[in-house]
């Protein structure tokens, strides 16, 4: 069973990102402050949930959270500062957008660039341990998926409505055949999936 948050002395926001390993689109991050008595039976790491479960949990989180915010860093910024720094920046932007300033941050992962004047702890696989990080993972994932589905209508051959920008065989083949879209990350290598057949 997941705990509500990492510590109970200070008002805490859980933070997570989505889209680090993608070839296209922004990286999204969310920051969520949950009430102490928050209960959502299915809530866990977003990667372990179905699309339908994530969407229904998003509605509950956005309705019941003390505060929540989602932010993004686009592909051009990712190319300029690299994906690790872009992930940190997206989380900073999400924290900055919160209507209530947290006193503590719990971060999913093993690295983070400290946010000014707010202490933090990095927690490996935190989205499977703490509800506030799991909630942030749900919001980051669902908001990003929504964005990728929207832009996929303009660039249908990359099949973003299905792969959400991740390097599937179909996505890589389409990028090699049609070239890169304005949403692709130019610093990410798109390898030819056919090469694996000859190695």
Automatic annotation (TrEMBL):
Keywords from the UniProt entry: Cytoplasm, Endonuclease, Hydrolase, Manganese, Metal-binding, Nuclease
GO cellular component annotations of the record: cytoplasm; ribonuclease H2 complex
Binding site for a divalent metal cation: 16-17, 108
Molecular function per GO: manganese ion binding; RNA binding; RNA-DNA hybrid ribonuclease activity
Main localization of the protein described in the UniProt heading: cytoplasm
Gene3D superfamilies (alphabetical): Ribonuclease H-like superfamily/Ribonuclease H (3.30.420.10)
Extent of the signal sequence: none
EC number: 3.1.26.4
GO biological process, alphabetically ordered: DNA replication, removal of RNA primer; mismatch repair
Family membership noted in the UniProt record: Belongs to the RNase HII family.
Name of the protein in its database record: Ribonuclease HII
Organism of this sequence: Pedobacter ginsengisoli
Organismal lineage: Bacteria, Pseudomonadati, Bacteroidota, Sphingobacteriia, Sphingobacteriales
Gene: rnhB
């Amino acid at each position: 069973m997941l705990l509500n948050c990492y510590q109970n002395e200070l008002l805490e926001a859980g933070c997570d990102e989505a889209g680090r390993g993608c070839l296209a689109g922004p990286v999204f991050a969310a920051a969520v402050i949950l009430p102490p008595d928050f209960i959502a039976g299915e809530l866990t790491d977003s990667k372990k949930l179905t699309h339908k479960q994530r969407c229904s949990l998003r509605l509950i989180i956005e309705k019941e959270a003390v505060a929540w915010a989602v932010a993004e860093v686009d592909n051009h910024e990712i190319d300029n500062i690299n994906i690790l720094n872009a992930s940190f920046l997206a989380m900073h932007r999400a924290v900055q957008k919160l209507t209530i300033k947290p006193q503590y941050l719990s971060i999913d992962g093993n690295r983070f660039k400290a946010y000014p004047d707010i202490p933090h702890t990095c927690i490996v696989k935190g989205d499977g341990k703490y509800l506030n990080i799991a909630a942030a993972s749900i919001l980051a994932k669902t908001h990003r998926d929504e964005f990728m589905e929207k832009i996929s209508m303009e660039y249908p051959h990359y099949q973003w409505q299905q792969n959400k920008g991740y390097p599937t065989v179909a996505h890589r083949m389409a990028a090699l055949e049609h070239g890169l879209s304005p949403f692709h990350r130019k610093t990410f290598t798109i390898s030819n999936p056919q090469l694996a057949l000859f190695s």
